[in-house]
Amino acid sequence: MTERKEAVVPHDGREIILSRLVRAPREIVFQAWTSPEKLADWWGPKGFKITIESFNMETAGEWKFVLHSPDGVDYPNRVVFIEVVEPERIAFSQSSDTDNDPDQFNTTVSFEDQGDCTCIDMRLIFKTNEARDHVIRSYDGIEAAQQSLDKLEEILFRTIADRLHV
After folding, report:
1. How much is the pLDDT for 117?
2. CA quadruple 128, 120, 4, 146: dihedral sign
3. Is 66 helix (H, G, I), strand (E, B) or coil?
4. pTM over 0.85
5. What 3-state DSSP class applies to 141?
6. What is the pLDDT of residues 120-162, one digit of tens each?
7. Greatest distance between any 2 Cα atoms in the chain
8. Whether the Cβ atoms of residue 154 and residue 22 lie closer than 8 Å to each other
9. What percent of the chain has pLDDT over 70?
10. Does position 1 have pLDDT exceeding 80, yes or no?
11. Does residue 3 register a pLDDT over 70?
């Protein structure tokens, strides 16, 4: 189902850039990012589950959830939406559910319509190079993001298959 899958970590920057071309229309991809039920199915690396505590996807809205690891560790998360432009872009700040989290980062996700495909571009920007590198090393951040996107693709494939069989 993946047409293209890329990850770039600029040597002298604070960013992680992920890009993926998926075989699904933009409206369906955007819905998978904006529906709490769909997010609960794919957000997080393989083996992880989430419990959504609250979800308000609008500018300045908040999404609180707990990411449950396979080894029983819980990671509280807080997302504050900076911008939501349907079906083009979502920008948000993500952190643990504590103020002044040193690992807090901002993400902008763009959805580019390419006919029956959608290009998903994710740009994660950290406070410092060191914070970015810490997330990459301590949480295997790039692989974790790729696994989440793999799970998203599985959801998209099932969604499209269900629509074709109706």
Report:
1. 95
2. positive
3. strand
4. yes
5. helix
6. 999 999 999 999 999 999 989 999 999 999 999 999 999 888 8
7. 50
8. no
9. 97
10. no
11. no
Tell me which residue of 155, 153, 33 sits closest to 92, measured CA to CA.
Answer: 33
Q: Which tokens sit at 118?
A: 């959608």
Structure tokens at 26: 């933009």
Nearest in space to 139 (alpha carbons), one of 37, 14, 45 = 45
124 contacts 105 by C-beta, under 8 angstroms: yes
Amino acid type, 36: P
Q: Letter for the amino acid at 12?
A: D
Q: To which H or E segment does residue 131 belong?
A: helix 129-139
Q: What's the one-letter identity of residue 105?
A: F
DSSP-derived secondary structure for 75-124: EEEEEEEEEEETTTEEEEEEEESSTT-TT-EEEEEEEEEETTEEEEEEEE
Q: Could you read off the pLDDT of 4-26 as tens digits, one per residue?
A: 788 899 877 899 999 999 999 99
Q: Using CA atoms in the order 130, 131, 137, 139, what is the torsion angle rounded to 10 degrees?
A: 180
How far apart (Å, rounded) are the C-alpha atoms in residues 18 and 81?
19
- Lookup result for tokens 């609250």: 54
Residues 57 and 90: their CA atoms lie apart, in Å, by 9
pLDDT at 98: 84
